[in-house]
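3.2 Worked example (two chains)
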Amino acid sequence: MEIERKFTINKLPDLTEYEVREIVQGYLCTDPVVRVRKDGDRYYMTYKGKGFLAREEHNLPLTKDGYEHMITKSDGIIIKKKRYLIPYLSHTIELDIFEDDLAPLIIAEVEFDTLEEANAFVKPDWFEEDVTEDPSYANANLSKRK
C-alpha cells in the first residue's frame, strides 16, 4: 500500500546538498496504472491501483533490456524528471523537477506509513497547495499531456 501526499511549491529550497536521481518513466496503461521506470541504473515495472492518497502498489524488477523494450510501447509522453531527496522531520520529501514536455512543473511528494500520519502531516513553509486528490497531478495523467 502506498500512502502519499502531493504538493505544489512556492519556492525552491537550496538543492545543492541533497541527493538527486534521474528518473525516466512511461505508461503502458493508465487504467489500471502500469508503468515502467528507469531510476538511475535500476529498472522497474509498477502496477498501481485506484486512488490518490492511499492505493495498492506493486513494483517488479526489470532488466535494462526489458525496460528498453517496454518503454517504446508507452502511451503518451515519456516523463523525465530529477528527483531530489530532502529529509524533513521523520520523512523524506521527494521533490520532482520535471523536464522536457512537462517543464517547468515541480511537485513535492511525501510518503507515509499510515493514513493517520499522512493526515497529521504539517508541511514546510515552501510547500503551497495540497494536490493529492487532484487527478491532473497524477503522473499517469501527466503522461497524457502533449
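3.2.1 Second chain
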Amino acid sequence: MIIAKQFRDTLNRIPEGKVFSIRDFDIPQEYQPALVKSISRLVADEAIQKVSKGKYYKPRKSVFGTLKPPIMEIVKDFLEWNGKTIGYITGTAAFAAMGLTTQITSAITIGTKQYRRPLKRGDYTVSFILQPNDITAENIPLLCILDAIKLLKKIPATSPDECTQILEKQIAALSVTDRKRLTELATGYAPYVRALLGAVLECIGADTFDLRKTLNGTTKYKLPITTQALPTKKNWNIV
C-alpha cells in the first residue's frame, strides 16, 4: 500500500505534458514489475500516453483536443544529462523558431558531440548531427545560426536569399562579444560556412574578426545566393 501511495503521489506531482519514466518514481527494484503493470493499466485507460519504450506523459486537454508534449520534452534525455547540457535542437524545428521557415515537421534534429543513429520516438523521427564545439546554453543560439548557414540550401519553404537576409538581421542584433564568439565557433564548420558568415558580417558593417585568415584565398564557394541579397559575396569568393 505504501508503494501504491508513493506511485500515486509521484504521478500526481508530474505536470501534464512532462515526459517521465520509471526512474522518476524512485521505487525499489523489487517493486518495479508492479509499477510497470500500474503504468500499463493507465496507458490502456488513456490516463497517460506512451511516447516510446519506457517513456510516458500525462496528456493535456484543450479545446483543440489532446496536446502532445513539447518537442523539448520528447527528446530531453538527448539534451541534458545529470544537469549538464549535452545536445540542442537544431534543423527545421529550430529554424522555424528563428523565423527562417514556416514548415511544420515531425523530424527532430539534435546537435551532439557523440554520434547516434536515427531513431523513432512516438510520431517523431529523431536524427543527430555532430557538433565539434562545446555545447553550452550560451553557445546554442550561435550554433543554430551557424547550422542555418551550413544547411542554407536545405531549409524548406523558403529561399536561400530570404534566409540570408533574415540571418543578416539576427547577426546584426548580436552584441560585439557574441559576434566575436560566433566567428570563433565558425572555425569548427566547413570553409563555405565561414565564407558566408564573413560576407554577412561585412555586409552589415561589422568586424569579421580575422575570419578571412581561416580561408584559402583561391577557393571559390558555390552558393545559391544573389548579389542583391548579399552584395559582399564576391569579396569572400562566393559565386
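3.3 Remarks
The longest helix spans residues 32-44.
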